[in-house]
UniProtKB/TrEMBL annotation:
Transmembrane segments: 40-65, 138-162, 182-204, 225-246
Name the UniProt record assigns to this protein: Phospholipid/cholesterol/gamma-HCH transport system permease protein
PANTHER family, alphabetized: ABC TRANSPORTER PERMEASE PROTEIN-RELATED (PTHR30188), PROTEIN TRIGALACTOSYLDIACYLGLYCEROL 1, CHLOROPLASTIC (PTHR30188:SF4)
Alphabetical UniProt keywords: Membrane, Transmembrane, Transmembrane helix
GO cellular component labels: ATP-binding cassette (ABC) transporter complex
Organism: Flavobacterium defluvii
Molecular functions per Gene Ontology: phospholipid transporter activity
Top-level taxonomic group: Bacteria
């Protein structure tokens, strides 16, 4: 089993090398990139906004309900919400959800092309199929930090609404807490993580779709496996990057 895992990791890195060989012509590539931006980034905004807003509210309410000691100032609700959303919730939690949404879409679309022999047809025409299929997804996901930025804003905004209008703290207290001891590097840290996660989201599902074998049933299995491995890698890299950047 260890040999199989090592061979899969080796094949993954060889795939990364092949993606950047023999580039597709720019007029074709431009249209592919725009299509991937629409499919992966624009189509994800709705669910990201919905989840971020309500999770931000839940974080604020949970924090408020646990601050039972009257000596603890209410502005800590805003402080805890900001820290939770910026450091962990927006970059990591949303990326795990996107591993399910984007990852299954990427694996199933490339896997279906493999099953229906469209990838073989690209190879016969002399096209670098990995560059044609995967490279546009990597470029499109360079816009992923934009999605996470919106998630951060809506998470804090949802926390402010929940605490101010739920009677847990005043609007002034929440805003004071959200501004208190703000460290700009935390935003940088979150966006560095986001770019690494974007690379994982683009390449791991593509790997499982591109190298799958079998029929329609195996496409579904490959989508499930790609979600699991993308999530595992995101959590693992989250730990490593936190240790390196904040440790």
């Amino acid at each position: 089993m260890l040999i199989r895992y090592l061979s899969q990791i080796g094949r993954y890195f060889l795939m990364l090398k092949e993606i950047f060989n023999k580039q597709t012509k720019w007029p074709v590539m431009k249209n592919l990139i725009l299509k991937e931006i629409d499919d992966l980034i624009i189509d994800s905004l709705g669910i990201v906004c919905f989840i971020s807003f309500f999770i931000g509210g839940v974080v604020a309410i949970q924090t408020a309900l646990n601050l039972t000691n009257p000596l603890i100032p209410k502005y800590l609700i805003g402080f805890a919400t900001r820290q939770s959303v910026i450091l962990e919730f927006a970059p990591t939690f949303i990326s795990v959800i996107m591993a399910g949404k984007m990852g299954s879409y990427i694996t199933s679309s490339i896997g279906t092309m493999r099953v229906t022999e469209q990838i073989d047809a690209l190879e016969v025409m002399g096209v670098n199929s990995l560059n044609y299929l995967v490279f546009p997804k990597i470029i499109a996901l360079l816009m992923y930090p934009f999605v996470i930025g919106i998630s951060m804003f809506l998470g804090i905004f949802g926390g402010w609404l929940a605490s101010a209008y739920g009677g847990f703290s005043t609007s002034q207290d929440f805003i004071q807490g959200a501004q208190m001891e703000f460290i700009p590097f935390h935003i940088t840290y979150a966006f560095i993580k986001t770019l690494i996660f974007a690379m994982l989201l683009a390449t791991i599902p593509s790997f499982h779709g591109y190298y799958m074998k079998g029929g329609a049933l195996e496409v579904g299995k490959a989508s499930t496996i790609s979600f699991v491995w993308t999530s595992v890698c995101i959590i693992l890299f989250n730990y490593i990057l936190t240790q390196l950047l904040l440790g």
